[in-house]
Design a protein that fits this description.
Distance between the termini: 30 Å
Strand content: 25-35%
Largest sheet: 8 strands, mixed
CATH architecture of the largest domain: 4-Layer Sandwich
CATH topology of the largest domain: L-amino peptidase D-ALA esterase/amidase
Shape: globular
Order of helices and strands: EEHEHEHHEEEHEHEHHHEEEHEEH
Helix content: 25-40%
Number of strands: 14
CATH superfamily of the largest domain: L-amino peptidase D-ALA esterase/amidase
Radius of gyration: 22 Å
């Protein structure tokens, strides 16, 4: 991976001993000067201690550092879990000369296990000493669980004639569905913006990206997405034009990360874009695309390279949205499989099977009722997915 960072920030990743294989498992983001921050968090009612603490502190709109660990979720750990999350931020604050409330925390890993604070305590000075300005890869690797590759993206843009940069890292290969944030994602920019502007941009960007992907239909207890702005570029995001320019670049980063997350999903062999158009409303289209993208029968057919279009129509029909079976049209890439609710025959099926052999393709369902549309990234369900999750804790 190319070495890069984001102006105004330093990052690090070290091995603290949480992972048995010696891989990086503790990461840090440090803003060299006070930064503004926005966040989006899991909607799961079972929420890990780091989510509770970080949600509370993010509400202030200020941040100087984020410490994050993998291997242990610090979830369902009682009052001690919250104390451990506070201790993690306190360790960073004391080492870097910050206030405790200026440090945020995120965790990912196994639910229900106490955080090994002795290992964290010993590693934090090393972690802070490893901070660098030009290499986010160590941070990206430190947050990996069942991910096989680190995910880091950089984009540059111009707002009102001045340049800015957005950098993002993310992890997530399982327990992913669109209930924000569906994973851990940390975004940094050298643009200058208020916390309210950042929150509006992040919420909109997440809705178009991380909330449009699914791997297995489950939502984690630890999902966290943070956006920090250092302001060191002097590019002020305060006009409508600047906000639009910043949103475009932020969306590009988030969408790129979303595609990388699906491609590296647990046991994934196919990346599939499911598109629903012709619905009466966007809400109806979203309802149907959600049902199709999450259907285990549809996803196993993708893995088997089986053009079983009946499973797609059946999933759409149970979604609860307005639908007329006699108007349905279905395409695999540009191969039409269904016209007016009826299959197009063996020739079309053979062509569609060829599409399914590709690593990535698009399934389009046209309801023929209106202008509503929605899109979601999904994947196949493979034998390896079951193997990975059958013994995840061991």
């Amino acid at each position: 991976m190319e070495r890069f960072g984001c102006p105004g920030f330093k990052t690090a990743g070290v091995h603290a001993g949480l992972k048995k294989n010696g891989a990086l498992d503790l990461g840090l983001i440090w803003a060299e000067q006070p930064a503004t921050v926005a966040g989006v968090f899991t909607r799961n009612l079972v929420q890990a201690a780091p989510v509770q603490l970080t949600r509370q502190r993010t509400a202030t709109g200020r941040c100087r550092a984020v410490i994050v660990n993998s291997k242990n979720a610090n979830c369902c750990t009682g009052p001690g879990g919250l104390r451990d999350a506070e201790s993690m931020t306190g360790l960073v604050a004391r080492t870097l000369g910050l206030g405790d409330d200026e440090v945020l925390v995120a965790s990912t890993g196994v639910i229900g296990a106490p955080m090994p604070m002795d290992k964290i305590t010993a590693a934090v000075p090393v972690l802070c000493g490893a901070l660098v300005a030009d290499d986010v890869e160590a941070l990206a690797r430190s947050i990996m669980t069942t991910d096989t590759v680190p995910k880091a993206v950089r984009r540059r843009g111009t707002a009102d004639g001045r340049d800015f940069t957005v950098v993002g890292v993310a992890k997530g290969a399982g327990m992913i569905r669109p209930d924000m944030a569906t994973l851990l994602c940390f975004l940094m920019t050298d643009a200058q913006a208020t916390a309210d502007v950042l929150q509006t941009a992040l919420s909109a960007g997440v809705e178009r990206s991380l909330n449009r992907l699914t791997i297995d239909g489950d939502t984690s207890t630890n999902d966290t997405c943070l956006l920090l702005a250092s302001g060191v570029s002097g590019t002020l995001i305060d006009t409508n034009g600047a906000r639009e320019a910043f949103q475009r670049v932020l969306d590009e980063v988030l969408i790129d990360l979303a595609r990388r997350l699906v491609a590296d999903g647990e046991g994934v062999t196919k990346v599939v874009t499911v598109s629903v158009c012709g619905a009466q409303t966007d809400a109806d289209a979203r309802c149907i695309v959600d049902a199709v993208a999450h259907s285990p029968l549809v996803k196993t057919a993708f893995f088997g390279q089986d053009a079983n279009w009946g499973r797609i129509l059946a999933a759409a029909g149970r979604a609860g949205a307005k639908l007329d079976p006699e108007r349905l049209a279905l395409f695999f890439d540009d191969v039409q499989m269904v016209r007016d609710g009826v299959g197009c025959g063996p020739t079309a099926e053979a062509a569609a099977t060829a599409v399914l052999k590709k690593d990535a393709f698009t399934v389009t369902l046209d309801l023929g009722l209106g202008l509503g549309r929605a899109e979601m990234l999904t994947c196949d369900f493979s034998i390896d997915y079951v193997k990975i999750n059958a013994d995840y804790r061991s």
